Request: fold
Amino acid sequence: MTIPGWTVAGMADISGRVAIVTGANSGLGYETAKALAGHGAHVVIASRNQQKAEAAKQALLIDLPDASLEVITVDLAELSTIEMFADTFAERHDRLDLLINNAGIMMVPKGLTADGFESQLGTNHLGHFALTGRLFERLASTDEARVVTVSSLAHRSGTIDFDDLMSDQSYRPKAAYSRSKLANLLFAFELRRRCQAAEVDVMSVAAHPGVSSTELGDHLLANIFMQPLKLLAKVALQDAAAGAQPTLRAATDPSVTGGEYFGPSGRGEVRGRATRVSASANANNPAMAEQLWDVSQELTGIEYP
Reply:
């Protein structure tokens, strides 16, 4: 079953459900949190910056005075804070219906996370791998729970070099970003396979926003000479609310069965309404996904129950 012309306005009521959205203080995450809260969910704003997260919560409450919102800080570039986040969440909640793995960094200069991982792979993939693992008990004990992992069109040019996973030998910001987004899809699809094999009722789905105007790439246009291009991008690209639609459909559409990938319906998947799309051959490589899973467990120390 498909839903022609799916829109956020057509989302079902999700009152009573508990959702976590990483990076919900701005951009796609903010719009995702807004739509989920607007349709009845209790939304945990998971952000590394307490001040920005509280500001986002207050902004959401202006538009949605009756929204149920909560802030818990987490830095996906630091495994110890992921553990603290999961412990805090488990103390406060006995269910987790939706985990939206949205937060990320894009094409940054070479750097390392607190645990010594290349920053883009460490934040975008390993951080979410660890977070999902830490929260998995709550997900597995909640009927019809979903994990939505946000990837990117950039995954299509991504490769996984297990001999240089952290780009120590050669670092290019775009290549490292594409690798992390490919890793997101490999993780999402492998999680679905493992849940199916173990007969665990957790649905794993993936999405990408197309090309949207958000703060994610602002550092790439920070130079004063790039300001005209920045303004042009904000006019030409779809806004964050439109970019969040594939994530929201993956999270709430009752026809979703797991293992699917959602993106914009327009030419090149750049913009348009949310629809099912195809991932690259690498993203659909089970052997690569299994190897990445094993390496990710070893690096993070997280073993899924």
The longest helix spans residues 173-197.
